[in-house]
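tool=predict chain=A
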Amino acid sequence: MPRHTSPRPRTIEGITRLLIPHRRRRRVQPESAAATTTLHTVDFDRGDIGVRVDLVLLRHLGHEPQMSRARIQRWIASGRVTINGRPVPRVAWRIATGDRLCVDMHDVRRREVPRGEPVPVDVIYEDAHLLAVNKPAGLVVHPSYKHDTGTLLNGLLHRAAQWTSGDTPALLTRLDKMTSGVLLVAKRAEVVAALQRDMRAQRIDKDYLAVVHGVPAPARGTITLALDRDPWDRRRVTVTDRGGQPAVTRYERLAVSPVHETGDDARRLSMVRCRLVTGRMHQLRVHLSHKGWPIAGDPTYGRAVTPGRGRQALHAWRLSLTHPVTGEALSFEAPLPDDLQALLRESGIAWPPPRRDEDSASGSGDPAPDAATADVG
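tool=predict ok
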């Protein structure tokens, strides 16, 4: 008699049931429950084509509270990320042209609307349309999930209670928490739009002062290096030769500390003036570090924090523009802070430097900052 055999399974599910009969199958979420989730469509660009989906999501969702690559990968594994309506099969799946990428973000805590708080604001200039403020090192500019109160914006909102009805502060420039200096704030939407157009047209000049390790050579020049977010750490920025955002910095060496006893220029400090042609995240810190002149005290892109300082020696010194309403030429300067002046004295760097007649790093004929042009105390 022919031996009786059970029919062969024809599907992967059937094979799995035979090989691993004790494994409990995952319940499929009912359609009605799935429809209640909060889907967010990610608008990626051509720079994301061919890139792993977890890296694409980290790039576009990195600003969300407590976002990390590990969290995104857990979302992918649990089926919360879809491409063209279907769950992404693996974290290494790559984005293709025409894909529609969606994420279920129902449990992501949304940021609350910032409120006014009595945070001190050092105002350099103010009129009915805009104001310039001097931000001290240590003050966060805009609320985040780690700093949701006590920021510069909270202080500006508190001050805005005295403005004309409908006016609200909008930050046109931003600085890192541990960077000091001048910031530009608009009061109305039409002023914001006009200043943003000027920024895109490079009609607003932003000059910084930085104390760096080493002796920049040549004494003046232009750094052109594309930048992009570090795929492994969204808080960092790296130089890239594949894609990224174009970034241009002009610099001028203003003063140098005395020759070190070892004769090693890398152990000397220099005061450098930089002009941002573009305004990328961490641009100056990354550009100077990549050239071998890291900013003193920069724990992320340079050496350990200078003892007793606790921050990178970077200061937004001057901002120049044409008033978007009156057409008046304006220039706002923030004095060099006491801690940076102390660093210069201890390093033996003469400040202010001797006045020089040659052109500045920008090539526009502006003099280097000295007692006649910069209020540095």
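The chain has three domains: 34-104, 111-201, 202-323+331-377. The mean pLDDT is 82.
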